[in-house]
Amino acid sequence: MPELPEVETIKRELRRKIRGQRIVGCSIQRKDIIAHPSAAAFCPSITGELIIDVERNAKYLIVQLSNNKRLVFHLRLSGTIVVSPLNSTLERFTRLAIQLNDCQLFFKEPRALGRVYLIDGNELVPTLKGFYRLGCEPISDGFTFDYLKAKLKRRKARIKSLLLDQNICAGMGNIYSDEALFRAGIRPMRRANRMTDKEIKKLQQTLKDVIRDGITNFGTSVSDYKRTDGKEGSFQKMLHVYGREGEPCRKCGSKIALKKIGNRGTRYCPKCQT
DNA sequence: ATGACGTCCTGCCTGC
DNA sequence: TGCAGGCAGGACGTCA
Predict the structure, then answer these.
(1) Of the residues A77, A110, A132, which one is the last residue of a structural domain?
(2) For a 10 Å CB count at each end of chain A, is N or C smaller?
């Protein structure tokens, strides 16, 4: 599923492929994918605009348009963005197609949970609540030991659940949370307020490392995620716990366990993580 | 404010 | 082979 490294990969590829192009056409295959404004108003509002730049904030992909408009994509669980030649036919599960000067974008979303928003100037989009209250990304300078400690102390929720909280670790998702906890040697069900300074320090570092490694490897292709040319990322080859339940731990040989924490499938090594 | 849990959505996998 | 049912899970709403 697209987490920070996957969205960063898409951002970098789009920046290279579509910056400076103009939107010449738009078609919506599924209306409820357009969260704001109405589906009827959407295409007319973006057609004719120039693509100034492509950015990312946590898991949100932001396409800066001319006239101070921003196109915001949230890929949720299964969203992908494909860059195709202009004459190519719509790919399966395409929910939105945007034609540019010399290529087109397909927003594909098999599970139809992803959303697209158009923000006009400084307008506040009510359905984009999470976007306005994101915490620090693990790879940002602000993601220090002190920051993480302040966010975790007095919280008695399980650490795994708090890593998924976008107000604490912006851009984190299920895969990288499990991997960071494995690298830090911390059990996902541990209560945040019971963690030592040493453990928080370690976790702060492994969160940074795992996200950086994910980006270096162009993301994790385990289900739907693909790069904008349809190719796979490669971080799935380096996973220690995610998707490896029942298989031997690469460090100690114990069977990787799978438990539900906060209704999320959570993988960990019962021996390496304490 | 916090934490637990239900809901959305639909392709895919499992089991009968 | 075919079908029903369960599962996956990010964000958000609801409830205690």
Answers:
(1) A132
(2) C
HSE, CB side, 13 Å, CA atoms: give it for residue A254: 12
Who among residues 156-175 of A has its Cβ near strand B, under 7 Å? 156-158, 161-162
In whole angstroms, give the CA distance from residue A88 to residue A243. Answer: 34
pLDDT in tens, A184-216: 999 999 999 999 999 999 999 999 999 999 999
Looking at the C1' of nucleotide C10, which residue has the nearest alpha carbon? Answer: A76
The per-residue pLDDT for range A8-41, each reduced to its tens digit, is 999 999 999 999 999 999 999 999 899 999 999 9
Bases of chain B with protein Cβ within 7 A = 2-12
- Where is the domain boundary, A107, A132, A157? A132
| Distance in angstroms: CA A263, C1' C7 | 12
Active site residues per annotation of A: 2-3, 59, 264
